[in-house]
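Lay summary. Proteins are chains of building blocks that fold into shapes, and those shapes determine what they do. In this project we predict the shape from the chain. Here is one chain we studied, written as its sequence of building blocks.
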Amino acid sequence: MTLTDFWAWISRPGIWQKMLWSAGSSGFLIFLYFLARRIIKSMAHEELRGRYCRMAFHSLIFMTFLIFLFIWALPLAFQYFDDPGPVIMRLFGSLVLLLILTIVLRILKRLYDSLQTESKIRQRYWKWTQIVVFLIYGFILMRIWDIANWFAYFNNPILQNIFESAVALGIVYLILFFLRRFINSLQVDIQKRHQYRKRVTYTATGIYLIILIFIWAGSTTQWATVLSVMGAGVALALHEVLLNMAGWLYIMIRRPYRTGDRIELGDVRGDVIDVRLFQTTLLEIGNWVDGDQSTGRVVHLPHGQIFRRALYNYTMGFEYIWNEMSVIVTFESSWEKAREILLVCGEEASREVQEKVQSQIDRMSREYLIYYRKFTPIVYTSIQDSGVKLTLRYLTDARKRRSTENIISGKVIKAFKETADVDFAYTTYRITGR
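And here is the predicted shape, written in a compact code that computers can read:
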């Protein structure tokens, strides 16, 4: 075949559409495969991880083969056999779909049997899985055989689309419910479970939106007109809502913070416990509580604020902050000894931090122009009205600032008591008579 013949074949009607469908389907399957691998890699049992990774890979190959079979091979086969007719095509499609779902059920059954959970819970999962697969099979059969058109009531295309949208919503919701229950049963860190739940939810929402597009899509001109009119109205009426959605998109792409980070945005500080479409949920710190400790309140922060105010991240890439603690000793005291005591107490309290800081600084320097030359504690000296002020500067975990300051303060007080020529200074007044 020459290059001209190949280009003529490529230019045939429908070829580009098949190529786009093949590429899109393959990309979506690869995305699901890597998502499954991320979940499987978090399992504790090494042997099961290897087995499930192989099962996921074989499932990817099998599903890719079936998709290419439906897109490329079956149309050619039907043309070769002089178009066997819609009934045979529908029967063949129904049988192939039944075979696929049967294989999926067998894979899931082996997965449930290997879970380290109670027998009742495994049976419940298996029951829900069978229900979901049955509903999926029924919904696809309806699309294959046009069952909705068998009823005169559904001859109205709008009612038919509403019915199909409701059925699709029920199936997607059941699958999402089952996947969230399965993720909650994984023996992994709570933060990873939360991330998996969010990713599965976003994926299910995206799949449902794609299904809705296929159900309701008309001609390209109709969709362009409707979307233009709706977009103009929504942009005017829901400015703040769209701004929050844009903020969510910015957070998902740029990742200025993640779940578990400690941030400050405007007048609000806290630990990120959830990121949703319109808002970020924080467990508040500070306010009337000193030492950056939790107040116990939950704060919902609209995403639009990220475009209007400065964002501070305490823990992004570097989980430690510089903290300062000051004491004042009298002019009669030996401030050199006091300085040495502060330095020793600071080094003892931050010794564990020193071992971890350098690697994190190296990692951050690959992305940002940031460097520190000194990680060990240092004491600065200044003269005040009532004595000599000594300020200890040291690195500490962003969430342990108060506890480390408490430890250092206790050691300093004890050391000052044991040192004869070091005394704390305090405000004094001298009264003289005339």
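What the prediction tells us: The radius of gyration is 32 Å.
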